[in-house]
Amino acid sequence: PIGRMELQSTLQIMLESLSPKARRIVTLRHWGSFSIEEMTKITGESECNIRMILSRARRFLRQQYGHLIK
Question: Which pLDDT band, with edges at 50, 70 and 90, does 8 fall under?
Answer without folding.
Answer: confident
